[in-house]
Write a structure and sequence with these properties.
Elements lengths: L2 H5 L9 E6 L5 H14 L6 E4 L8 H14 L4 E5 L6 H14 L3 E4 L22 H11 L3 E6 L10 H13 L4 E4 L5 H13 L6 E2 L1 E2 L5 H11 L5 H6 L7 H21 L4 E5 L5 H9 L11
Parallel strand pairs: 1-2, 1-9, 2-3, 3-4, 4-5, 5-6, 6-7, 8-9
Helix pairs in contact: 5-6, 10-11
Bound molecules: flavin-adenine dinucleotide.
């Protein structure tokens, strides 16, 4: 990575597009904080902002409420995550219809994680859709939507090998997915090798890297272990001794995420999806580093 090479290319912000992911708030206080986050990130003009669907489909109403508020109260384009966990086909089809009649045109189609959490045994609903590919097909049947799906540069933990994993991605694309967003990763070589594998398999949709700024290294290590993402030793070492020093932790997190994203830009990547954890600070700082500037609407 070479920051000097980067600084000689002031046009770079123009060819970079970002999206932000939020989770639906659990209470009024969290909702207030999410709304502040959304308002802070809105002037960066993201391509879309997505709202997750809780494990086991547990946040169906809250996801819908959050998406509606974004539609009604901002200029942003919301994308609704949707999973098939613990729901029969009619229910999923009905939820798709409800989002569509609200005006939602963008979805992130997923199988989802079981209600018991990431890494627990998945069993498809007996009358339900079985996986992400089925979900894409269900969406396509109802409309000409923009459909993002998941991709796993380090393999999904349930995949026996990369071939099986990429085969599932291929099925999603064949059913109509328009873009894949990756699970977070910290080693850009892993991402690059994965994209090469995907292209060799004849898959040509954008594979947008999912970037997770490290808001809390302990939580990231614990979550990564369950979802099969590697936290390299060098990354842990950068946060050594910072458990009780949130300010330095945040500065280091911004530097680490900026370093990763700038390196990906150097490798030719132009789209980024940020897992914001409903916080604006780190995502905003990294976007600034890659040349994205807030655009404030002129007063009428
Ligand atoms: P799929 O794409 O259907 O499958 C994932 C992989 O598992 C496949 O590549 C396949 O190789 C393997 N696999 C699946 N079934 C089998 C099988 N029977 N035998 C062998 N291998 C199999 N979770 C939520 O609950 N809510 C969300 O809002 C949410 N948003 C996400 C957004 C992104 C961008 C990403 C990357 C993940 C998200 N997740 C979310 C997590 C996701 O639901 C989990 O990773 C889940 O375990 C798999 O869902 P999927 O849609 O990726 O599954």
């Amino acid at each position: 990575m070479n920051q000097f090479r980067f600084s000689r290319r002031p046009d770079i912000g123009d060819r970079i597009r970002v999206s932000f992911e939020f989770f639906p708030p659990k209470n009024d206080e969290m909702e207030g904080r999410l709304w502040e986050t959304i308002q802070r990130l809105e002037p960066l003009r993201p391509r879309f902002v997505s709202v997750t669907y809780g494990a086991g489909g547990s946040t169906r109403e809250r996801t819908a409420r959050t998406v509606k508020r974004i539609l009604d109260g901002s200029t942003l384009m919301p994308a609704a995550h949707l999973t098939c966990i613990d729901a029969d086909r009619d229910t999923v089809d009905q939820v798709i219809g409800e989002f569509a009649s609200m005006g939602v045109r963008n979805f992130v189609a997923l199988r989802g994680d079981p209600a018991a959490g990431v890494g627990t045994q998945y069993r498809p609903h007996p009358n339900g859709y079985a996986n992400g590919a089925d979900m894409v097909a269900a969406l396509r049947r109802q409309g000409d939507f923009d459909i993002s799906v998941s991709a796993y540069p380090e393999r999904h933990p349930e995949s026996p090998d990369f071939a099986t994993d990429i085969d599932m991605l291929k099925r999603k694309v064949d059913n109509g997915a328009t873009r894949a967003i990756t699970q977070f990763f910290f080693d850009n070589d892993v991402y690059e090798r994965y994209v090469e594998r995907v292209r060799r398999a004849g898959i040509y949709i954008p594979i947008v890297p999912g970037i997770l700024p490290v808001h809390n290294i302990r939580q990231v290590v614990s979550f990564s272990a369950r979802c099969g993402a590697l936290v390299p030793a060098w990354l842990r070492e950068r946060f050594d001794g910072l458990d009780n020093d949130p300010q330095t932790h945040m500065l280091v997190a911004a530097a680490v995420a900026a370093e990763q994203v700038l390196d990906l830009v150097e490798r030719g990547v132009g789209d980024f999806h940020f897992y914001t954890m409903n916080r604006a600070d780190l995502a905003f700082a990294v976007c600034h580093m890659i040349g994205i500037r807030a655009v404030v609407a002129a007063a009428a």
